[in-house]
Design brief:
With 91 residues, the chain is mainly α. The protein has a domain of 58 residues: 434 Repressor (Amino-terminal Domain) (Orthogonal Bundle). It contains 5 helices and no strands. The radius of gyration is 13 Å and the shape is globular. The two termini are 20 Å apart.
Length: 91
Amino acid sequence: MARIIDSEMKNLVGLRVKKFREQRKMSQRELSEKLELYAVYVCRGSLSRIEDGSRTVTDIELYALAAALKVSLDDLFGGARPEKGEPPLTK
Protein backbone atom coordinates (compact mmCIF):
# COMPACT_ATOMS: atom_id res chain seq x y z
CA MET A 1 0.00 0.00 0.00
CA ALA A 2 1.33 3.43 -0.93
CA ARG A 3 2.09 5.85 1.85
CA ILE A 4 -0.16 8.91 1.98
CA ILE A 5 2.55 11.14 3.44
CA ASP A 6 5.86 10.57 1.75
CA SER A 7 8.08 13.18 3.39
CA GLU A 8 9.98 13.75 6.62
CA MET A 9 7.33 16.09 8.02
CA LYS A 10 4.10 14.30 8.90
CA ASN A 11 2.06 17.38 9.87
CA LEU A 12 1.88 21.12 9.25
CA VAL A 13 0.92 22.24 12.75
CA GLY A 14 3.52 20.76 15.10
CA LEU A 15 5.77 23.77 15.47
CA ARG A 16 2.80 26.05 16.07
CA VAL A 17 1.37 23.65 18.67
CA LYS A 18 4.71 23.87 20.47
CA LYS A 19 4.82 27.66 20.12
CA PHE A 20 1.31 28.15 21.55
CA ARG A 21 1.91 25.59 24.31
CA GLU A 22 5.10 27.33 25.39
CA GLN A 23 3.44 30.77 25.22
CA ARG A 24 0.91 29.44 27.73
CA LYS A 25 3.73 28.07 29.91
CA MET A 26 2.20 24.63 29.63
CA SER A 27 4.18 21.38 29.71
CA GLN A 28 3.50 18.61 27.22
CA ARG A 29 2.04 16.57 30.07
CA GLU A 30 -0.34 19.43 30.97
CA LEU A 31 -1.48 19.74 27.36
CA SER A 32 -1.96 15.99 27.18
CA GLU A 33 -4.18 16.17 30.27
CA LYS A 34 -6.20 19.07 28.79
CA LEU A 35 -6.80 17.03 25.64
CA GLU A 36 -8.39 14.33 27.79
CA LEU A 37 -11.15 16.84 28.66
CA TYR A 38 -12.12 16.58 24.98
CA ALA A 39 -11.94 12.75 25.07
CA VAL A 40 -8.75 12.87 23.01
CA TYR A 41 -5.98 10.73 24.41
CA VAL A 42 -2.52 11.77 23.21
CA CYS A 43 0.29 10.79 25.56
CA ARG A 44 3.19 13.14 26.25
CA GLY A 45 5.46 11.15 23.94
CA SER A 46 3.00 11.37 21.05
CA LEU A 47 2.61 15.09 21.67
CA SER A 48 6.39 15.43 21.42
CA ARG A 49 6.31 13.65 18.06
CA ILE A 50 3.46 15.90 16.87
CA GLU A 51 5.53 18.95 17.81
CA ASP A 52 8.65 17.70 16.01
CA GLY A 53 6.60 16.77 12.94
CA SER A 54 7.27 13.03 13.04
CA ARG A 55 3.65 12.03 13.81
CA THR A 56 0.48 12.70 11.85
CA VAL A 57 -2.44 14.48 13.50
CA THR A 58 -6.08 13.50 13.03
CA ASP A 59 -8.82 16.05 12.50
CA ILE A 60 -10.25 15.20 15.93
CA GLU A 61 -6.85 15.82 17.52
CA LEU A 62 -6.52 19.12 15.63
CA TYR A 63 -9.88 20.29 16.94
CA ALA A 64 -8.97 19.36 20.52
CA LEU A 65 -5.50 20.92 20.27
CA ALA A 66 -7.01 24.21 19.09
CA ALA A 67 -9.60 24.14 21.88
CA ALA A 68 -7.10 23.19 24.59
CA LEU A 69 -4.69 25.90 23.47
CA LYS A 70 -7.53 28.41 22.98
CA VAL A 71 -6.56 29.19 19.40
CA SER A 72 -8.35 28.82 16.10
CA LEU A 73 -7.64 26.11 13.57
CA ASP A 74 -6.42 28.92 11.31
CA ASP A 75 -3.90 29.86 14.01
CA LEU A 76 -2.59 26.30 14.05
CA PHE A 77 -2.17 26.31 10.29
CA GLY A 78 -0.80 29.87 10.22
CA GLY A 79 -2.44 30.88 6.99
CA ALA A 80 -0.67 28.90 4.29
CA ARG A 81 2.75 30.35 4.91
CA PRO A 82 5.36 28.48 6.87
CA GLU A 83 6.78 30.39 9.82
CA LYS A 84 10.51 30.87 10.30
CA GLY A 85 12.14 27.51 10.90
CA GLU A 86 9.29 25.52 9.38
CA PRO A 87 9.83 23.46 6.27
CA PRO A 88 8.15 24.51 3.04
CA LEU A 89 5.01 22.62 2.09
CA THR A 90 6.80 20.80 -0.72
CA LYS A 91 9.32 17.99 -0.57
